[in-house]
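Allow me, if you will, to draw on your knowledge of protein folds for a short while. I am sending you one protein, given as its amino acid sequence and as whole-number tokens for its backbone shapes. Kindly check, if you would, that the fold set down in the tokens agrees with what the sequence suggests. The record follows directly beneath this note:
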Amino acid sequence: MTHNPSPMIAVAVTCSLALGSCANVAKAKAQADAAADRFHAQFNNEEFAAISDSADPDLEQTHTAQQLKLHRAQLGPFQRVAQPKVWALSRTPAGSMITVTDESVFEHGSAQETFVWRVRGTTCTLVKYSLNNVRLPTPVARAKPAMRPVRFMPVQASLAHLQYLQRYYQEQLGLRVELLPELITDPVAFSRDRGQWSAEGLAEQVRQSVGNVDAVVIGVTGQDIYLRTSNWRFAFGWRKDDRVAIVSYARMDPRFFKEPENLELLRRRLRRMVTKDLGLMLYGLEASPDPFSPVYKDIGGIEALDAMGDDLALAGFPTVR
């Protein structure tokens, strides 16, 4: 994580409230929260001029807009408050002051936000806003470009799906993927009792077909598969080692669950499974416990597959885009 403290910025946002009793203090807090929501909405919409236009006249408004723009570019849109607010109330000759400190989450990181509200009569004005302790995720060290050949082999699969994968990895990773002839499957790997193919059996047939070459070979099948070494009902794939893997898109197809055809969804799911295999087999990446990582280690069902992300650079892939 990186630490990047930012200078104090003062802006003005107006809301109506009155301080006097405990009830009024509670009302002040609620309305201050509402004003902060409006501030964040303007921040997310990049309406920095609107924020500056309502700033205190004694402040450098241009500087204020520039700093907010930098924060927005660095952290992305505001998302939520991660921890309960810390409130402080004091009274000064210039009016009552309410200070609110939040631990806030943004799209690209988190930071500590502090709002200072000045209350005079029925007017509440945000006179200071600071953003400190900026924390950004440390990108995973990128793997060195791989030199081993990559080959995809159809195993009772649609050639169009493999051609799609071939184009995708050429664009995203600069990989030149060779498409091999379709594997002629030996029914010894088929279980009549289950109506499924053994993942280990198909992977071994792929390995025997390509021989002992130093390449990453991924067999892609449209048949439903299972693992001999597991009591799972099915599997999306299996890796024999860092050379051979088998991936099944049978249950990635919405039509398997009597849902409408969705080619884009099917291919996105297939791509994510193949991407994980390439990350581990070709680039030597570590499987991640993060369910949003492209190399998430525990893909137990379609929900997990759909939740995975596609940020290859953050996962450590040497992307070319």
